[in-house]
Give the backbone structure.
Amino acid sequence: MNRFWSPIVQTLTPYVPGEQPKQTDLIKLNTNENPYPPSPRALQAMAAEAAESLRLYPDPNADRLKQAIADFHGVTPAQVFVGNGSDEVLAHTFLGLLKHDLPLLFPDISYSFYPVYSGLYEIDFVQVPLTEAFEIDPQDYQMANGGIIFPNPNAPTGRLLPLAAIETILQNNPDSVVVVDEAYIDFGGESAVALVDRYANLLVIQTLSKSRSLAGLRVGFAVGDEGLIEALERIKNSFNSYPLDRFAISGAVAAMEDRAYFSDTCQRVISTREQLAERLGELGFQVLPSAANFLFVRHPEQDGAELAARLREQSIIVRHFRQPRIDQFLRITVGTDEQSRLLLEALRQIL
Ligand code: PMP
C-alpha cells in the first residue's frame, strides 16, 4: 500500500468483476451481456453525435434521456435519475442511505457490490438469508433498518419476487427507502415502476447494459418519487456533473425509443433460456427458475469449481462463486441458440 495515501484506502475490499478476457474466440457466458448487438438506431445516433459535437460538453442533466426514459415508463422526467451505469446510480443511492444508526438490509446471496458500497460509505448492513428455495421472503424484512435493497430478479439466483411481495415490503417499511435493482427485469418480470406513484419511498433502478445490449456504453437510471430523485441529483452534482458523455446520451435515447428491437431481442433471449433450462435439466442439472438472462444451476455429481474449469478448457467461460451455499452452482449467461448448442455439447463430453 502506498504510504502517501490515507489509511482508509487499506480498509476497502473492492468488488472483483467477472473476467473480461482478452481472448476473443471464447464463448463468453460469465457476465450476463446480451448476445445481440445494440439497436441499429442507437449505433446511428452515436455515429452522428461523433461527427457533430464532441467538442462541446454534454448536457449535465441529460434531459433528452430523462424524457425518453419517462416516456417509456409512463412517468415524468422529474421522476428519473440517470448515471454512468446502474453501478454509479447504486453508488449514489448508497451514499443517500448512509444513516449511522440503522443498518441497511439486503439478501445474503445477492449482487456482491452491495457490501462493497456499504464498506466504502461505512454503512452498517445486515445480510438477510434467502429461503431454502433461494427466494426472498418479504416477512424477513421487518427489523428496524435504514433502507432495503435487493435485485429483482435476484442475482445470481435469477429468482423473481412478484409485485405483491414487493408491496408487502414497502408497507412493512414506510419509513425506509426500498430500492429494487431491476438490472434483469426485462427478461420476464413485471417492473416495480408501476408502484412508484403510490410509494414515495420506492426507488427502482434499471440499466441499459443487459436488455438493451449497451454494457459498454455505461448507462443506468433510477425511477422514483421526485423527492428521492432530487436527493440523487444533489449527490451526483457533488461528485461529477457530467456522468454521461454525448455518445451515452444519444445512444441511450435511441435505444429507449426503439421498442420493437428491444422487445424482439428480449423475446429471443427468453426463448433461448427456456430451451437451455430444459436441456440442462435433461443432463441432470438442478436449474433454478429464472426470470433473468442467466441460469443458476448445479449438478448433483459435479463440483462447481471443477465444472467451470473444465468448461474453460473448452473455451466456454461461465461464472462460479466461492461463497457458502452456492459454491456448487454455476451462473450461465443465456447467449444465442448456437452458443447453447456448443455449451450443451461441451457438457455432454464432460459429464
Ligand atoms: N445490478 C445488478 C444486480 C447487476 O448484476 C449488475 C451487473 N453486474 C448491475 C446492477 C450493474 O450493471 P451496470 O453498471 O452495467 O448498469
About this structure: The two ends are 44 Å apart (CA to CA). The longest helix spans residues 259-282. The first strand starts at residue 27 and ends at 29.
